[in-house]
Write a structure and sequence with these properties.
Protein name: SAM-dependent methyltransferase
Number of helices: 10
CATH superfamily: Vaccinia Virus protein VP39
GO biological process, one term: methylation
GO molecular function: methyltransferase activity
Number of domains: 1
Strand content: 5-15%
Order of helices and strands: HHHEHEHEHHEHEHHEEE
Distance between the termini: 43 Å
Helix content: 25-40%
Number of strands: 8
Shape: globular
CATH class: Alpha Beta
Keywords: Methyltransferase, Transferase
Largest sheet: 8 strands, mixed
CATH architecture: 3-Layer(aba) Sandwich
InterPro entries: SAM-dependent_MTases_sf, SAM_dep_MeTrfase_SAV2177_type
Length: 271
C-alpha cells in the first residue's frame, strides 16, 4: 500500500495513471496547495491530512525550505539551478524565485514523470532561461548528459543542484550514495547541493495515526540525520547544517521554538 492508495476508494478507468510516481506526485501536490490531482488523489490527500497531519506539515515545510534555500543562493550570486525530481509546478517555483533575482540566469527542471513534464513545459513556455528535461535520478549519468544540463555545468560557473524530497524515494539497492557522489563530482567548484529528506530519527507528533503514517510512507526510505549528511560528501555545509527543515534559516514565524518536523534540510558548497 503506497501513499496514493491510503483510502479504499476505487479508482475509475479515467483515474488509472501511467505510473506510481504520477500518483505520488499528485498527492504531494495536494499537500502543498497544488491543483494537479485527480479525485482519488484529493481523497487520499484529505485522508492523510486528517490521519497523519505530521506528514502533510513535513511536506509543506519542505516546500518552504526549498524557497528559502533558493532565495539564499540567489543572494550568494548563484543564478544557475538544476532542480531534480521537481514535481508538479506550484508557485513560487524555483525559476520564479531565481529568475526574478537574476533574469539572465538559467533553471533546468528534471523529473521522471512525463505528466509533470507536460505541466512544467506549459508553465514555462516563453520564459527565457527555464527548461525541462525528462530524467531519472537513479540514472545520474544519463541525466547529466542532457544538453540543457551540460550547458550549465560547462559554463564553469557555480550551479545549485536541488534534490528536494526526492532521495527518500530511492532505495539503498539503487545506491543513493553513489548517485549523489556522481552529481556532486559533476558540479563546478563553488557549486551548491540543496537537499531535503524525510527523517527516520525525528518522531512524529502525537496527532498522527501510526498505521496511516506507515501506509503513507512505505514507498519512502526514511533516513537518519547522519545518513542525510553523508549525501553531502566533502561539501562544506552552510550553517546551520542538516537540520529539521523549518529550522534551516527560518524566520521566527517559520521556525522559532516550534517542534522539529520529520524532514531534514541542508545546503552544502563545493570548495
Amino acid at each position: 500500500m503506497t501513499i496514493e492508495n491510503v483510502t479504499s476508494q476505487p479508482a475509475g478507468d479515467s483515474d488509472v495513471l501511467e505510473s506510481t510516481n504520477a500518483r505520488q506526485a499528485r498527492v504531494y501536490d495536494n499537500f502543498i496547495g497544488g491543483e494537479n490531482g485527480l479525485a482519488t488523489d484529493r481523497a487520499a490527500g484529505a485522508w492523510i491530512r486528517m490521519q497523519a497531519p505530521g506528514l502533510v506539515a513535513a511536506m509543506q515545510a519542505n516546500r518552504a525550505f526549498l524557497s528559502r534555500a533558493v532565495q539564499w543562493l540567489t543572494r550568494q550570486g548563484v543564478d544557475q539551478f538544476i532542480d531534480i525530481g521537481s514535481g508538479f509546478p506550484v508557485s513560487p517555483n524555483t525559476h520564479e524565485i531565481a529568475l526574478s533575482a537574476s533574469p539572465s540566469g538559467s533553471v533546468v527542471y528534471c523529473d521522471v514523470d512525463p505528466t509533470v513534464g507536460e505541466r512544467t513545459r506549459a508553465l514555462i513556455a516563453g520564459q527565457a532561461g527555464a527548461s525541462f528535461v525528462l530524467g531519472d535520478i537513479r540514472n545520474p549519468e544519463e541525466l547529466l548528459a542532457q544538453p540543457a544540463v551540460q550547458g550549465l555545468i560547462r559554463s564553469g560557473r557555480p550551479v545549485a543542484c536541488v534534490l528536494a524530497a526526492v532521495l527518500h524515494f530511492v532505495p539503498e539497492s539503487a545506491d543513493p550514495a553513489r548517485i549523489t557522489a556522481v552529481l556532486r563530482d559533476a558540479l563546478p567548484r563553488g557549486s551548491y547541493l540543496v537537499l531535503s529528506h524525510v527523517a527516520s530519527d525525528i518522531p512524529w507528533g502525537d496527532g498522527n495515526d501510526e498505521e496511516t503514517l506507515k501506509r503513507a510512507t512505505e514507498d519512502m526510505y526514511l533516513r537518519t540525520q547522519e545518513q542525510v549528511t553523508g549525501f553531502f560528501g566533502d561539501f562544506e555545509l552552510v550553517a546551520p547544517g542538516v537540520v529539521s527543515a523549518p529550522h534551516w534559516r527560518g524566520s521566527e514565524e517559520t521556525a522559532g521554538d516550534g517542534p522539529d518536523l520529520a524532514i531534514y534540510g541542508g545546503v552544502g558548497r563545493k570548495i
